[in-house]
Amino acid sequence: MAESRFSFDSADEAATARLAAWLGAALDKPVLIFLNGDLGAGKTAFARGFIRALHGQNTQVPSPTFALVQPYEAEAALPILHADLYRLGAPEELDELGIIDALADHICLIEWAQNGGGILPQADIDIHLEATQYGRAITISAAPHLCAQLDKAATRDAALEAFLATTDWADAQRAPLAGDASTRRYERLQSNTAESTNTAKPAVLMDWQAAPDGPPVYDGKPYSRLAHLAEAMPRFADMVTWLRAHGLAAPQLYALDRAAGFALLEDFGDRTLAAEARFDKPLDQTVFYFEAVETLLHLHAQDAPDFLPAYDGAVQAIETSLFTDWYLPYCGVTPNATAKAEWRAIWQKLGDDLAATNQVAVLRDYHSVNLIWRDQAQARDRIGLIDVQDALKGHAAYDLASLIYDARIDVAESRRDAALAHYLTRRFGDDQKARDDFTAALAICAMQRNLKIAGIFIRLAQRDGKPSYLGHMPRIIAYLKTHLYAPALKPVADWLVAHAPHALEPQID
C-alpha cells in the first residue's frame, strides 16, 4: 500500500524523463504503476521516459491508446507492459488483454486505470500528473523506501547540475541511457548551443556514487572486494587515462569530479556487435575481429599499470564459486562445504599458475557489449573501449577468451580459429612452445570465465528478476563442454564427475 509521497516540478519532458529514470532505477521487482491525470497531462511522456531509461533510448514507445497494451522486453531489465485503458470497453476485457497475467512478472504501467475498476488490484505506485503554468506537477505515492530513494536521487541530481554548471555542457539537453548491472548511471548530453569545440558533440555523463559494501560471502568479505571490482569513480578515471596514454581508444575525460563520482566522457556512440539488429548496414565482422585482436596485441605489448591488483588464484577461485553457489543449485545440485572448498582450491592453483606468467592489463569484459565500433576512426582506434574499471593484472589469454568465446553472441568456429591464429602469429611467430602455452592458458581462461558467467546469469535471472539471461545459457554450457577435457583442466572435470556429473547436460529454456 502506498504510504509516502514525493513531489516534483517538471519544467519540460526531459525533466519528466529524468524523474521516470530515477523511479526505474529504484525498482528491482514487478510492480503495478497507475499513471493518473487529465488528457495532455503527460502520462505517456512519463511512460516513455521510464521505458527508455530501462530498455534503451532507441526504444520506440508509441502511445497504446488504440492497441491498448504494448509490451517491452530487454535482456538487462525487467519486462514492461504499458497499457492505456481510455478506450477499454469493460473492465472484464483486462483478462483478454493479458494485463492480469502480466502483473506477476512485469512492471505494469497503466494509464486511465480507473476504467479497470473492480478488476485491477490497488497500485503499488500511484503517479499523478497535472499541467501547470510552468510545466508539470508530479506527485508519486509509493512505499516509504521508494520515496526515500527518489528524494536521494533528486538531491544527487542537484549536485550533478552544479557539476555541469562548471563545464561546457551547462545548458545541455539530458537523456537517460539504459544502465548496466551496476550502481553506475549514464546520460547522453547534447548542448543547445555549440559555442565551443566540445559542445559541438554529444557527451556521456557517468554518475557513479560509491555504494556501501554488500553482504560478506567468504572469509567475512563482500564479493566485490574479493573479486577486486571497482567501487568508485577513481579506478575508472585512472584506467581510461592509462589506456589513452598508451595509444588505445578509451573515452576522453572532458570533466571529472573524482570525489563526487561525476565524469563527462567522449561519446563513442552505441554500435556494438551485440546491438547489430538496430542498424541497417551490417558491420563487417571480419574487419571488426581483426581490429579487436590488433587492439589486444597493442594492449599486451604494454607493461600493466602498477595500480592494478593481481588477477590471481584467490580472485579466480571466488569468481568460479558463483558456479557452485548459483548455477549448480539451479540444476538441483548443492555441493557440501568440503566439495566447495575442493573447488576453490582447484581454481586457486590454476589461477596462481596463470598469474605467474604472461602478465598484462586484463580488461575482464572484452566482448561484444563493451567494444564500440567507431566508423569514422582508423585502425585499432575503431575499437572503443568502455567499462574498463574492473581491469586487473593477469594472463593475456583472458581477454582473447572473452572476445572469441563471447557470452552474448554466437561466434562462428571459423572466426574463432582465425582470431586465435592472428593473435598467435603476430605475437609469437614461429615459437611453438609459446604458442602451445598460450593456447593451453586460453582453455583455462575460457573455462574459468564461463563458469563465472554461468553463475552470474542464473543469479540475474533468479535474484534480480531478469529471466532473459537464461537464453544465453546453452551457449555458455557449450563453451564449458568445449574446454572441459583440456589436459590442464582435468581436476575440474574430475570434480564435476564426482559432485555434479550431469551439471552440463540440462536444456535451459
Plain-language structure description:
- The protein is 40% helix and 18% strand.
- By secondary structure, the chain is α+β, with helices and mostly antiparallel strands.
- It folds into three domains: 4-164, 3-Layer(aba) Sandwich (Rossmann fold); 170-267, Phosphorylase Kinase, domain 1 (2-Layer Sandwich), CATH 3.30.200.20; 270-499, Aminoglycoside phosphotransferase (APH), C-terminal lobe (Aminoglycoside 3'-phosphotransferase, Chain: A, domain 2, Alpha-Beta Complex), CATH 3.90.1200.10.
- The protein has a seven-stranded mixed beta sheet with strand order 1-7-6-2-5-4-3, covered by helices on one side. Strands 8-9-10-14-13 form a five-stranded antiparallel beta sheet.
- The longest helix has 31 residues, at 432-462.
- The mean pLDDT is 90.
Q: Summed up, what is this model?
A:
The chain has 509 residues and is α+β, with helices and mostly antiparallel strands. The protein contains 15 helices and 18 strands.
Number of strands: 18
Number of domains: 3
- What gap, in angstroms, lies between the N and C termini? 35 Å
Mean pLDDT: 90
CATH class of the largest domain: Alpha Beta
Lay out the secondary structure.
Elements: E1 4-10, H1 13-26, E2 32-36, H2 43-55, E3 69-74, E4 77-84, H3 93-97, H4 99-102, E5 107-111, E6 125-132, E7 135-142, H5 144-164, E8 173-177, E9 185-190, E10 203-207, E11 216-218, E12 221-222, H6 223-226, H7 233-245, E13 253-257, E14 262-266, H8 285-300, H9 313-330, H10 337-355, E15 359-362, E16 371-373, E17 383-385, E18 392-395, H11 397-404, H12 413-428, H13 432-462, H14 473-483, H15 490-499
